[in-house]
Structures are given as structure tokens and as C-alpha cells.
Amino acid sequence: MDLYSEISRLALTKGDKTALRRYFTKNSTHKTEAIAALSTCEDDDDRILLFHIFTDQYARPQVTSQLGKVKRPLEEQHENVTKVLKLDSPSSVAEHYDYTNEELELQTGHCAWTIELIEIMAKVYDVEDLRLQAFRDHTTSLTGQFSIVENEDKSKSDGILQTITTSGQIGLRVILAMKNEIGRGRSDPTIQAALSYAKYWAQPQRKHVRASCCCPSLLLAIAGPWVCVLGGIYTTKPVISPITDFIPLVPIPDERHFHRIARLFEAIRLAAQYLDNYYRTLSIVYNSTTQPLYPYPHQYVTESNTFSQRYNTYAHNLCAQERLAPRLFYVSKEKFGGWYMIIMEYVEGETLNTLQSDKTEYDNVLKCVRKAIHILHCKDIVFGDLRKSNIMVMNSDKGCHGMLIDFDWAGEHGKDRYTSKINPDIRWPTGVEGNAIMDKTHDLYWLDKLEENE
After folding, report:
1. How many CB atoms within 10 Å of residue 390?
2. Which domains does the chain have, with CATH numbers?
3. Which residue, among 338, 334, 341, has the nearest Cα to 306 in the 3D structure?
4. What is the strand order of the sheet 303-308 is part of?
5. φ, ψ dihedrals at 164, nearest 5°
6. 172: pLDDT strictly greater than 60
7. Which range has highest mean pLDDT (6-10, 69-73, 93-97, 173-177)?
């Protein structure tokens, strides 16, 4: 098999192709390994995944000297990553394993186990292997024994927890990446864990599990006495998102800090237990399917779905009653992993920022927007983000008609606040910033901008 012909033939980016050719020309050992691995791939999807791993790990690594020039893989992910990760399991499960929940019940003896964990992790170790072995030995009683599994290219993580499905396939529950101290080693343990996750699930023998689910796994990244927990899923590619910050596993004279650590590892135990049952009972699909990308909703009418951490149902319905917003079919009463599910009418059209229209059509849309804002302001509601991208335009026999969409920000005048994250590249009205109080004058500012067609 000609390696360079495969690189040219497959659907890789031009930059990746150049980097791969250059890398394999200089590294004959990995070139031989790549040829051997390609021979085990069943189709082009597997071959592309293999080259992606070589690209991220060797040919174009996004660590060391390139940091600052390109974003870390974790920073590149859209906010939808976190939505998908948390929605992969039912809301009751997500809430049950929420380590920030002070009501999370701890098992008998877990506090004593946590004290010993802190003592182990706070020590200074001469070599990484001693720290790694001490952590794995202590966590065996909590999650089960970590094993070492070698990938086809001979690489391996610092430890994994696996489950055998009823059909004999293997699922990855937890993956561990450790550095002896912060700054030691040649990579960030979060990136190491992410790459190990991607490499594990990209192996050809995992193909049937990948076709059966979105491969949820926990990732533990440890640097000295600091731990960060991440979540991973596999859609059309590996997607990784942090669940916690880096938490110090050191003895601090603060009861709240101790209980945070105790709840964290109890949540890890429960989540690993849940994933064990998840994979053990997983129905394996042997035919190609897109179902793993949509693990829970199965039936729908013609509608549009979105997820939001806050949503003003009242404001949406006020506008929908006047056909100034899509009809709202459903807003979940409970949050799914911190997000509401919103289902609304699907409307044919385009947003105002992409519309090519004449003045009459534009004025018709603007008339609808003015009416919608008037209705909201009469009820002391501020829409908040009245940019063209949040205005839908539909064509009908009567001409162009405008609707407001995305009521995520809508809130009570003089009381509710804007989201903490405000895009600094946008020219907002005076007084609008992260966590600022909402005011009707902010909507009027946007109306003026729309009048000027800016």
C-alpha cells in the first residue's frame, strides 16, 4: 500500500496532507506503523480517523510551540459540545451525579477514603510512575482496577476502565492521564487524555460500538495533586469538554473544600457505575446508522429544536400569539444536564442579516419587529438581543413577514440581567455588558439601528 497515495486520495485538509507527507518522510518508524494500521482499516472512514490521530499526535500537534498560534482542541469546541455531553444521559442521571450538589449522599467510609486520597496525592514523588501507581491502587476500591491497554500503534494511556458488552464488544468508561507535577512531561494531561480517548475509539475493533452509541466516557486528567474531569463523546469525530476546573487534592483547613473533593469522587464512582451498566446492556448495531448521534429523542413532527440554559417562555408566547414568533410547542420543565429543551414550529425563511430585499420588503419586516417589541415592552419585557440574526423573514402572498426568534435573553426590565458572556466584538448599546441589568432603551437602540438598516 502506498502511504502517500492514500494521503492524497482521502478527504483530508490540504494542511494536514502536507504535514503528514513531511512527517512520514522524516520518520520511517511511524511510516511503517501507519502502513500496518491502514491495512486493518475496513473503509475510508477508518483510514481518515487514523490519519487524524497521526496529525493531532505527531504531524501537527497543538501543544508546546504551537500554543498561542492555534487554539487548544478543548477551546475550539462550540458550546454545543457541553450540551451534547450533558444530554447524553437523562436529566435525572445528570443531576444524580452532580458533584456540586451538596445533597449528594456519600457512602459509609467515603470520607475516610477521601482523607487517605488527599494524603496520597499531596505527597511529592520522585518519579511519575510512583504517583500513578499510588493513585491507581487507592482508587481500585472506588471504581475498580485500572488496566493498561495498548493501541495498534503501541501507544497507551495511564489507565482505563472498560466494560464488556453482552455481545462481547468493549466500551471505555474512564480514561486516566497523569503528570507527576504541573509543568512536568511534554504535554498537558487534559490534551493527553483527549488524544488517548480519540485514539482508543478510533481503533478499527471499536467500529461496531461507535456505530451503536456516541461512546460517552469520563476523562481524568491529573497533574501532581490537581485533578480535572472531562467528558468525551464520539459523533462524527471525538468531542471533548471539561466538566470541572482543576481541583487541588491537598489538605486545606476548609470543610467545604474537603466535601467538594469527597463529592467529586463519589460522583465519579456513580458515573463509572452508570457507564458500566450502559455499555454492559448496549445493543450493538452492525449496520451503518446515524442513531448514535441522537441517543434519546426518536419521534418528532416538523419543528425546530434548541437547547438553552434560560428561556423566556412567556415572552415567546406573547409574540407567537400575534404570529410575531414561531409557535412554541414545548419547553421542558426540568433541565437536561443544565439545559432546557425548547421545541418550536419550523418556519421556512431566512434571517434578516442574510436577506437580499428591497425597501418595501424590509419596511414590512421592520413593522413586524416594532410591533413585537411594543408588545413586549407593554409587559415590561426586554428582548435584549435584537440583532438581524435573531429576526426571521418569511415570504407569503401578502409579502415579507418578520418574526423574533431566540428568546434566551429576554427578561424583565430593570430586574433581570444579561448573560455573563457578551461578545466584545459587537457594538452593544451603552450600559450593556456581562451581567448588566436589562433596560428597554437597549431594544430601542437596536430598533434605531434597524431603521438605519445597519
Report:
1. 21
2. 1-60 (no CATH), 73-280 (3.90.1570), 303-451 (1.10.510.10)
3. 341
4. 303-308, 340-345, 328-331
5. -90, 125
6. yes
7. 173-177
